[in-house]
Every structure is written in structure tokens, then in C-alpha cells.
Design a protein that fits this description.
Elements lengths: L3 H4 L3 H9 L6 E7 L2 E7 L10 E5 L5 E5 L3 E9 L19 E6 L6 E3 L6 E3 L3 H7 L3 H4 L1 E6 L10 H17 L3 E5 L5 H11 E2 L5 E4 L12 H14 L5 E6 L7 E5 L3 E3 L8 E3 L6 E4 L2 E4 L14 E2 L7 E5 L6 H9 L4 E6 L10 H9 L3 E6 L12 H8 L3 E2 L5 H12 L5 H9 L21 H13 L1
Parallel strand pairs: 6-9, 6-10, 10-12, 12-13, 20-21, 21-22, 22-23
Antiparallel strand pairs: 1-2, 1-5, 2-3, 3-4, 7-8, 11-19, 13-14, 14-17, 15-16, 17-18
Helix pairs in contact: 5-6, 6-11, 8-9, 11-12
Bound molecules: aspartic acid (ASP).
The site of aspartic acid has 9 residues, from loops.
């Protein structure tokens, strides 16, 4: 019997289940014009369409089979899944460091609630201890769910509260902070927190996962264990991102908050330090520095929180044949700052010059970054670069476009004075601009070396 109210299956998908007398948790083989699929029928999300039957395959992946294409469903049994994470009391040990985990949402905070189809957070210390007991070997963990959002929904309101909560936790004496966050925009949040939380005495480690913990290949536990280790025991008192290093689960990399970027939509090893090398590697055995120019852990609690933020700032990603009306529209809508992601060394086409001049004359602050991500804006090489600077556009060295964007939001939140904004933008706080790129930074510890070694090993076999 199909329990329609429980499954959420209605319409054509509901009738096909009725026809073959199967329902949720039926272990089935589905024959369809699109192929043959074996798996477990999962409840349908309340908000999903009524045209697909959702199957959990043996691989752990979920797929939707178009109801229309189904010719036969055979039931081989029933397997009701229980997704309640066992809650265990997180043990307290006075000799261990105290870490606070602030949750904002994202895949790392998620497990699928098969009743609603929604991804819901699992973030109490008891639940975390139940699923990742190794955490108790490292620290005493306190958790607090600030938000339960996917990271595209993060914005100034969330950044400000997060920065303030980090400040309060630091003043209350914690030894380290971990921030659980969706991976998609983690680099934006890492950058703005670097600017908002000045001079922190303890590590502030952001962590996420590309695959949720109900999937066999999940990176949630390893990323979390390593992040908690870096926060509890590490000496690097900066905003860092701790994520999967190479493609195997050997270690995580600690990336500086202003130089990190998500670079692959689905790989677990998606985060890379751009224009530099990561700060350290971390695995359950310890933290190994890759450089020593970082701010060290301190005992004092002198942290400055500056949550200034101007929302009327945008990134303009240049493409050939961009029309000036785009720039005019930005200005006419009251934007105070524009970060251009230009081509090559920092270029845009001549037809835009008039609109750019109009913008800077109206007091809009315009900064140039490069789409190549690696390398510097260099506006003296070609005449066009000089012309663009004459229009009032300021080159932003090797600042990543997203970092320049959040820094301009932060700067304009503090002042509208052209020279002051320029001073804030071009004075590095934590390596958002650097004097030079390391000559081998493009390859080393970017995931390339272990993969190259593995490739060489495989062809030598
Ligand atoms: N869409 C998710 C997010 O950024 C992806 C993730 O958490 O990895 O919130």
C-alpha cells in the first residue's frame, strides 16, 4: 500500500507506484525506456514535482526516474532506513582545549530527512560525537547553530552576526573556533571574516564538505576532524579554510582566508590557494607548516571586530562586446563600488570607456582584478591599461575578484573618501595582495604533486 501522505508521491508518480503495488522503502527493480534501475524507493520531497520516482542506488547516489518512462516495477523486499544519528553525551576533559563550532549550514551540516526530502542540520555536540567520536580525543566541543542555510544565502547580515559571535567567543576564552559552512561561497565568507575580525588570538577555521555524510564517499568527517584539530591545537591564529587536500583522503590543507577559492564544482579536493601556497597541512597526526609567515596563537583576548559593510558594490565580469549600458545601469541604480574582473592583465574594451568615466566622475569607486585568478593586474604594459587607469580605475594587484569585492564592501562601509578607500583597499591585512607569487606556487600543494605521483606510479606498474 502506498502511503501518499507520507511519501509525498502524487500525480503520475503516485499512480505508477499504486499500479505496481509498491511504496516508499520498497527495494525494487524499475524497468523503464531509459534503462533498468535497482534501488530503494525514497519518500518524495513535499515541494518536488510529481513526475519522478526517487531511487537510492547501491552506490549511495539518489536518482529520479521519470514516471512516464516506467514500464514495470518489481519489489524484492522492503528496507526502511533510519537516519536518526545516535546522540551520545560529548565527554568533557579539563585537560583538553575548548573549541566552539558555529554552524551556518551547507552540506557539512546536513543529512537527508527522507520524510520531507529536505536536507536538515545535525549539529548538536551529541549528534556530532555520535557520528564522529574522534572529535572527543581532540577537544571539548560546544556547538551553536547560527543558521541552517546553503551558502548562496549567506550575506552581510550573516557575516556580521558571525563576526560578532566569533568576537564574543574569543573574549569568553575559547582556544579555537570552527565555522561549519557551505562550500560554494565559503571563500567569500573567509575573506570578509578576515577583514571583520582583526588580530584574532586563536585559529578561526572554516570547514565544509562536498558530499553529505549519508554518502559513502563523504568528506564531512575527515574535514571536520582536521578542522577541529587545527582550531584546538594549531598555532595559526588567522581565518583559515580547512578542506580536503589531494584526491585521496590523506590530509587536509589549511588555506589563508583571503587567498582561497572553490575551484571544482564536485571534486572533494575543490579548494585551492590561488597565487600562493597554502599555510599548512593537517591530518590526525598533526599540523605541518608549509610556510612560517603566519600570525601565531596568543594568550591575550585583544581582538577587534569591525563589521562595516556597504551593500551597493558589485563585480563586473568583463566579456568581449560588453555594452556600456551595463555600467550605466549599475551607476544609475546607486552602486558605490565596482570590482571589474578584466581580461588578461586587466582589460576592458574601448566602447566602455565613456561609461567608466561617467561612473568615476559620479564618485563610484572602481577597482581592476584579473579573470585569470593567478597573476597580477598590470596596467602599464599596454596603452589600453594606462588609458583605463586615467579613467580612474585602480589596479588591485593580485587580489582575487571576490576578495576585492568583499574588501570594497568593507572599505565603503567605513568611508566614502577616495584616498581613504584606496588606502584600505591597497594595504594588505592578510595577504590579499602579495609582492610576488612563489615561483612554484602554481603547482606545489595544489593537489598536483600527489596526483602526478600517482599517475607516474600507475604507468610504471
Ligand atoms: N550548495 C552547498 C552550499 O554551499 C554546497 C556545499 O555545502 O558543499 O551550501
Amino acid at each position: 500500500m502506498v502511503e501518499k501522505s507520507m511519501t509525498g508521491y502524487r500525480g503520475i508518480a503516485g499512480s505508477i507506484l499504486d499500479t505496481f503495488r509498491v511504496g516508499i522503502w520498497s527495494d525494487v527493480v524499475i524497468e523503464s525506456s531509459k534503462g533498468r534501475f535497482s534501488g530503494l524507493i525514497l519518500p518524495r520531497s513535499e515541494t518536488a514535482d510529481d513526475k519522478h520516482v526517487v531511487l537510492k542506488l547501491a552506490s549511495g547516489y539518489n536518482i529520479g526516474v521519470a514516471a512516464e518512462a516506467i514500464t514495470k516495477i518489481t519489489e524484492h523486499g522492503r528496507r526502511e532506513a533510519h537516519y536518526k544519528i545516535p546522540e551520545k553525551q560529548f565527554p568533557v576533559d579539563d585537560r583538553k582545549p575548548n573549541v566552539t563550532l558555529l554552524g551556518t549550514g551547507g552540506t557539512i551540516a546536513s543529512r537527508l530527512d527522507y520524510r520531507t526530502g529536505a536536507v536538515i542540520p545535525a549539529f548538536s555536540p551529541g549528534e556530532l560525537y555520535g557520528s564522529v567520536p574522534e572529535l572527543a580525543d581532540i577537544c571539548n566541543l560546544r556547538t551553536e547553530k547560527l543558521y541552517g542555510v546553503f551558502s548562496e544565502n549567506m550575506g552581510p547580515e550573516q557575516y556580521i552576526r558571525l563576526a560578532e559571535r566569533v568576537g564574543e567567543e574569543i573574549r569568553a576564552g575559547v582556544d579555537g573556533i570552527v565555522i561549519g559552512h557551505g562550500t560554494d561561497t565559503m571563500h567569500h565568507t573567509a575573506a570578509i571574516l578576515t577583514f571583520m575580525i582583526q588580530n584574532p588570538p586563536v585559529p578561526i577555521v572554516m570547514v565544509g564538505s562536498q558530499r553529505s555524510s549519508d554518502r559513502p564517499s563523504s568528506d564531512a568527517a575527515i574535514n571536520l576532524i582536521n578542522a577541529v584539530k587545527a582550531a584546538a591545537e594549531g598555532d595559526i591564529a588567522e581565518v583559515l579554510v580547512c578542506m580536503f587536500g589531494p584526491t585521496s583522503d590523506e590530509y587536509c590543507l589549511l588555506h589563508r582566508g583571503t587567498r582561497v577559492r572553490k575551484m571544482h564544482s564536485s571534486y572533494r579536493s575543490t579548494f585551492r590557494t590561488i597565487g600562493d601556497i597554502p599555510v599548512a597541512m593537517v591530518d590526525p597526526d598533526g599540523i605541518r607548516d608549509l610556510r612560517d609567515d603566519y600570525r601565531r596563537r596568543r594568550d591575550d583576548r585583544d581582538v577587534t571586530i569591525n563589521t562595516a559593510f556597504e551593500e551597493k558594490v558589485t563585480i563586473l565580469y568583463y566579456y568581449p562586446n560588453m555594452q556600456p549600458d551595463i555600467v550605466d545601469a549599475i551607476v544609475d541604480n546607486g552602486y558605490r563600488g565596482i570590482v571589474i574582473a578584466g581580461t588578461g592583465l586587466g582589460h576592458i574594451n574601448k566602447p566602455l570607456y565613456g561609461a567608466i568615466k561617467r561612473a568615476t566622475d559620479k564618485g563610484v569607486h572602481i577597482y581592476m582584478t584579473v579573470q585569470t585568478l593567478w597573476g597580477y593586474v598590470q596596467m602599464y604594459v599596454y596603452e589600453t591599461g594606462r588609458e583605463i587607469m586615467e579613467l580612474g580605475v585602480v589596479p588591485a594587484a593580485n587580489m582575487l575578484p571576490e576578495v576585492a569585492y568583499v574588501k570594497l564592501c568593507w572599505a565603503l562601509g567605513q568611508t566614502g573618501d577616495r584616498d581613504e578607500v584606496r588606502h584600505i583597499m591597497l594595504t594588505p591585512i592578510s595577504d590579499e595582495t602579495t609582492d610576488r607569487e612563489p615561483y612554484n606556487g602554481y603547482l606545489i600543494f595544489q593537489g598536483a604533486i600527489p596526483e602526478v605521483q600517482e599517475f607516474l606510479r600507475s604507468i610504471k606498474r
